[in-house]
Amino acid sequence: MFYKNVLYVIPIFMYGWLSFFSGEAIYNNILYQGYNVVFTALPIIWFAVFDWEHDKETFLANPKLYRIGLEDIFFNKTTFWRWFFYAVWQGTLLMFLAFYTLDGSSNSQGTLGCLSLDGNFVFCALVIIVNIKILINSY
How many domains does the chain have? Predict the structure, then answer.
């Protein structure tokens, strides 16, 4: 959850530096509002509902299985900061690659790239990257 949301806001923050913090939005407002609800929450909900390592009776009979969460074995400060820096690095790289490569592109009418093209590309790439990351880490 932290990774996908940090990755989501880093291109906005980095674009602020390019635009001298003008307040211009790079994402479409409808896409911006639907990111957590539609585009990235459904795979996480699907994984949370259908990922069963043990049935309920096994957990009730063996309370020591809860130690993983109580002792922070899979989620600790090191894990948090590693995912945080992954998101910052990937978001920064994605934003600068998109803005410096697509601005020089042209379409069949000969018009050059624009802010909406760059922003929509970054948004679509974010959704794809986050969902692939969820898929890879859900083994």
Answer: 1
